[in-house]
């Protein structure tokens, strides 16, 4: 069963052009899938539909086979999301922020602290746990956002333009960490970007979105040939 499957997805905001016009693709378990498209292609709209924030005009979103409109609780339990808008409290420390989100998920304190330690360690953030978010650079903040999104152990992670505002070394570090999540834990990743150079040899699948339609979909080599 695909981790994420979208099928015939349409969405309009009421203007004369649809934001999405019949989009379909799959993200397989353990696969790093890049959703590549210029600004305005429909990436954020797709994320809003895949997380249940918006209802599609037509079409389906299934997470591990559960339709998110009909079975939203079951579908959303396995989903972790890194939105473009920051969700962290700047005046709390890394640890305080993560404990807060763990409590929101109903994770007990001891279990939460174990999970937080393991996520911070693999994201190379453990030494930063006592620092306020305000004191961290952009790359570290994004990695804390990823740790937050992983606390409830999702099997599908959606990241909407996670590298916006980062310099090239910080982008490379972030991509390397997220590839490691796929390889080590079999987490399925959908990584949205407008930057073609974020597609690297470890990318399993690329979906090219353009003006609300899938222009190409396949392994990196196939998409390079069509682009
Ligand atoms: P179909 O004609 O069945 O829709 P697709 O072109 O979607 O075929 O997929 C062809 C092959 O690529 C299938 O074996 C499918 O499992 C695989 N595949 C499709 N989408 C993805 C993806 N996002 N990640 C990894 N493999 C994929
Ligand atoms: P991307 O994330 O790829 O930049 P979006 O999903 O934000 O693309 O935008 C797709 C299209 O939908 C664009 O034409 C955009 O102007 C339009 N759009 C996005 N959000 C809204 C909104 N809240 N109201 C009206 N139009 C919107």
General description of the model:
Helix content is 34%, strand content 25%. It has 7 helices and 10 strands. A 6-stranded mixed β-sheet has the order 6-7-8-3-9-10, sandwiched between helices. It has a 4-stranded antiparallel β-sheet with strand order 2-1-4-5. Helix 6 links the parallel strand 7 (156-160) and strand 8 (188-193). Helix 5 (138-150) runs parallel beside helix 6. The model has no long low-confidence stretch (mean pLDDT 94). Residues 13, 15, 19, 37, 39-45 line the site of one adenosine-5'-diphosphate (ADP).
Quick synopsis:
By secondary structure, the protein is an alpha/beta fold. It has helices spanning about 45-50, 70-75, 95-105, 110-120, 140-150, 170-185, 220-225; strands spanning about 5-10, 20-25, 30-35, 60-65, 65, 80, 155-160, 190-195, 205-210, 215-220.
Q: What keywords describe this structure?
A:
single chain; 227 residues; alpha/beta; six-stranded mixed β-sheet; four-stranded antiparallel β-sheet; 7 helices; binds adenosine-5'-diphosphate
């Amino acid at each position: 069963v695909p981790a994420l499957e979208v099928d015939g997805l349409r969405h309009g905001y009421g203007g004369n052009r649809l934001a999405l016009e019949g989009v379909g693709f799959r993200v397989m378990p353990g696969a790093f899938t890049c959703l590549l498209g210029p600004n305005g292609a429909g990436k954020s709209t797709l994320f809003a539909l895949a997380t249940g924030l918006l209802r599609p005009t037509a079409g389906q979103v299934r997470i591990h086979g559960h339709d998110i409109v009909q079975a939203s609780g079951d579908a959303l339990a396995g989903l972790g999301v890194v939105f473009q808008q920051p969700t962290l409290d700047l005046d709390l420390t890394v640890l305080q922020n993560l404990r807060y989100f763990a409590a929101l998920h109903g994770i007990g304190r001891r279990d939460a602290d174990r999970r937080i330690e393991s996520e911070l360690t693999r994201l190379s953030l453990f030494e930063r746990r006592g620092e306020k978010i305000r004191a961290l650079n952009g790359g570290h903040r994004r990695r804390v956002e990823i740790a937050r999104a992983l606390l409830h152990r999702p099997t599908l992670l959606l990241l909407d333009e996670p590298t916006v505002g980062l310099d090239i070394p910080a982008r490379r570090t972030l991509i390397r960490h997220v590839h490691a999540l796929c390889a080590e834990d079999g987490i399925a990743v959908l990584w949205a970007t407008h930057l073609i150079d974020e597609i690297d040899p470890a990318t399993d699948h690329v979906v090219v979105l353009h003006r609300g339609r899938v222009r190409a979909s396949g392994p990196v080599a196939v998409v390079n040939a069509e682009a």
